[in-house]
Amino acid sequence: MGGIEKRKQRHIRMSLEEDVQSDIGTGLDEVRLIHRALPEMDLEDVNAGVELFGRRLSAPLIISAITGGTEDAKEINAALATAAEEFGIGIGVGSQRIAIEDPSTEHTFRVVRERAPSALVLGNLGCPQLSLGWGAAEARRCVDMIGADALAIHMNPMQEAVQVGGEARYRGILSKVREVVDGIDVPVVMKETGCGVALEEAVKLEEAGVDGLDVSGVGGTSWAAVEHHIAKEVGERDQEDLGRALWNWGIPTAVSIVETSQSTRLKIIASGGIRTGLEMAKAVALGADAVGMAGPFLKRAVEGPDAVREHIRRVLLEFRTVMFLVGARDIEELKRVRVIILGRTAEWLRIRGFDPEDYALRGV
Ligand SMILES: Cc1cc2nc3c(=O)[nH]c(=O)nc-3n(C[C@H](O)[C@H](O)[C@H](O)COP(=O)(O)O)c2cc1C
After folding, report:
1. Which of 20, 64, 274 to mutate to test the pocket of ligand 1 (most atoms within 8 A of CB)?
2. Quick check: helix, strand or coil at residue 152?
3. Share of the chain above pLDDT 70, in %
4. Is the CB of residue 61 less than 8 Å from the CB of residue 89?
5. Res 364: pLDDT
6. Quick check: CB of 88 below 6 Å from ligand 1?
7. Which terminus of the chain has a smaller tally of CB atoms within 10 A, N or C?
8. pLDDT digits (tens, 9 = 90+) for 134-151
């Protein structure tokens, strides 16, 4: 088994068996939606459907990038894609680097499009590979491999810095992103991996021509934690301690949603620690166009397609119920409902130059 395959298996194993959750929240617990005692609609009037990157979704939910490249990963992808197709939600594949380097693993990614022929499917490639010389040609191969509707390019400077043998190379990255945007004919989504995106990057990425941003903020899976456990297992003390020290590094998801959605016109995907339909509704009310989850789907996928189905069914039931309770008939209305921001998240937003009062008053 090659080095990348081993690393991928370790990532999955650590995510399933060890504590890899951030100790601080997403900030969404400090966001309140307002209950409407007279919603002036029936529960059955709720329409959660959205259009994103040319596909119709039954609800703004995406299974975030997790894996590919090994036989186990293929099974996980198959279970996730089957459910995504049935529910009409989106799905992203894990980094396709391994399949570009070793085409014999392509089938572990292709299974996603085979099982989800009409779903929104996102390809995945990492910034470090672009820094090391890959460009539009490799990006096109990723898209063609799975008939992707959009390509996610992941940003993971923290993970690469903490990972044993990581490639923390981000010099000149923006011009490489521009090259990919100009060289492929599907939308590009820049995606963090659990540390959030600040408005400075959001603005630069919009100028570079990208179409979307997946904020993947702090509050859920911590890659510092994953790499901490791996470093511990292989006896690399420095990286083990670095992972511990940076366990909660980054921008909470709620803050990142507000910063990026207020400062750009990019399509915003909210992820990082979102676990419930209520949190999903809060993320949309704060400005997200769709919501992604990774950790919860990985846990269900190893149990099989039924567990994945059950998870989606419950999340969407909760999401639609909350839409009813705030009187939102559709996603556009949910985006305009009044939001109250309390506590630490409000302080953070003030530091960043936003007035939380705007959110408390909006829509009244
Ligand atoms: C096992 C595992 C593997 C992942 N691999 C990738 C990847 O290859 N590319 C990527 O963009 N994100 C990857 N992620 C990050 C997720 O897509 C997501 O941004 C992050 O886990 C935060 O979401 P969560 O709190 O819902 O897990 C991975 C996450 C997990 C748990």
Report:
1. 64
2. strand
3. 99
4. yes
5. 45
6. no
7. C
8. 999 999 999 999 999 999
